[in-house]
Write a structure and sequence with these properties.
Blueprint: H1 2-17, E1 42-47, H2 51-60, E2 66-72, H3 76-86, E3 93-94, E4 110-113, H4 120-129, E5 133-136, H5 144-156, E6 161-163, H6 171-181, E7 188-196, H7 209-212, H8 216-232, E8 238-244, E9 258-264, E10 270-276, E11 282-289, E12 293-296, E13 307-309, E14 312-313, H9 321-335, H10 345-364, E15 368-369
Helix pairs in contact: 2-9, 4-5, 5-10
The structure holds NADPH dihydro-nicotinamide-adenine-dinucleotide phosphate.
Length: 373
């Protein structure tokens, strides 16, 4: 009898204990559930059916709260393929000339802009004018002036503007942020962010100032900029920066190859970062505090992200970043949910102000002051 009671107690414990465990917000995101989701769904049209647009579309197949329902593309053949692959009706297909007509389409709630950086400004403002919420890929624009205009246009149109910061929903990233907020690392003293890769094809838009707005800093350096802010938990007050160019034929004027930059934070912490298009194996964050540290490598790729702290390895399960991102963004847009780390246009604008300041620091050699909060 006693052993039967013990057996039953063992069985009951997880079921009884679960409701009282403080489960982190990511824990439920990709768990299969017996009750099908019946709440509101964000109906999304993707603009720009390229490499990353395709990744987002595939990830959205597993979303509960967001659904791919439309496309905007300059390539008719891609539209056809996507229509059959994702079941998209012809009435939800647009090109770059006619997509303003989406304002008359009640079956699309939001447009996800996934085109080359320099096109975001115009495309986001047109989407907002069409009365649609906008998710825009990083960098939100190519400078802070454009970014401010996008924020203003979305405010004026009374639509939400979010930036595709997928790491803001990544479980290990969120755990380190939780630890830092809880004081488990003590006073934060230092952040290091190393990001980069060898860019390859010299003819791609990423190496054109007109389409990319710059070089590695715009594309990959932004992860270290944004990461420094959410890891340290403060806004930088100043920036210094230095550029090196070893291949001027590949990296033309105003297209940066490698930039090292440093930040100073109000609490006394400093950051040291490197952004490059000409070195491999760089995807590493290190956060140091007086009582502990956190290290991530890889820190921002599609994962699985690996992380350890002074307390040991983090074992949070891998999630498909874009699936979680889109479900969470649906909650933000439809239900006003507040994310742990902001993903709105103001957040994107802060990174653009820092990018402007880094380029200014490179050009002048000066320490450039920032006022972000
Ligand atoms: P791709 O070159 O793979 O795709 C871009 C797509 O934009 C093209 O396929 C095309 O689609 C459309 N497009 C419209 N005008 C142009 C033009 N003049 N030149 C080239 N393409 C054009 O780029 P990515 O998908 O890699 O990057 C797109 C955006 O996504 C960038 O802002 C980038 O920074 C961001 N990104 C974000 C990532 C993340 O992890 N958050 C990862 C990778 C990229 P169509 O033929 O349908 O018109």
């Amino acid at each position: 009898m006693d052993s039967r009671r013990k057996f039953l107690q063992k069985l009951a414990l997880p079921a009884l204990a679960l409701p009282f465990l403080p489960l982190p917000s990511w824990a439920n995101l990709q768990k299969p559930t017996l009750i099908p989701y019946q709440g509101p769904v964000l109906r999304v049209a993707i603009m720009g059916l390229g490499g990353y647009g395709t990744r987002v579309a595939e990830a959205m197949k597993d979303c509960k709260k967001a659904k791919l329902v439309g496309v905007i593309s300059g390539t008719p053949a891609k539209i056809k393929t996507w229509q059959s692959k994702y079941g998209i009706p012809a009435k939800n297909c647009y090109n770059y000339e006619n997509f303003d007509e989406v304002k008359n389409n009640p079956d699309i709630d939001a447009i996800y802009v996934i085109t080359p950086n320099a096109l975001h400004h115009n495309q986001v403002i047109r989407s907002a004018k069409a009365g649609k919420h906008v998710i825009c890929e990083k960098p939100m624009a190519v400078n802070a002036k454009e970014g401010q205009e996008m924020v203003d246009a979305c405010k004026k149109a009374n639509v939400k503007l979010l930036v595709g910061y997928r790491m803001h929903f990544e479980p290990k990233t969120l755990e380190i942020i939780r630890m830092r907020k809880a004081g488990e690392l003590g006073k934060i003293t230092f952040f290091q962010g190393l990001v980069g890769f060898k860019v390859g094809d010299p003819n791609q838009w990423r190496l054109s100032k007109e389409l990319a707005g710059g070089g590695s800093l715009m594309d990959i350096g932004i992860y270290a900029i944004n990461g420094a802010r959410y890891m340290v938990g403060e806004e930088p007050m100043w920036v210094t920066a230095q550029e090196t160019k070893t291949d001027p034929a590949m990296f033309k004027k105003d297209v940066d190859e490698t930039i090292q930059f440093q930040f100073g934070f109000p609490g006394g912490a400093v950051a040291s970062c490197l952004s490059t298009y000409n070195m491999n194996n760089l995807d590493k964050f290190f956060l140091n505090g007086n009582d502990g540290f956190a290290e991530m490598q890889p820190s921002t790729n599609y994962g699985p992200i690996k992380a350890r702290t002074h307390q040991g390895e983090l074992s949070h399960p891998h999630v498909t970043h874009q699936t979680v991102q889109m479900d969470e963004m649906a909650e933000i847009i439809l239900n006003g949910k507040q994310p742990i780390v902001p993903v709105d246009g103001e957040e994107g604008l802060k990174d653009l102000k820092i990018i402007d300041a880094i380029y200014e620091a490179v050009q002048t050699g000066n320490k450039v002051s920032l006022k972000l909060s």
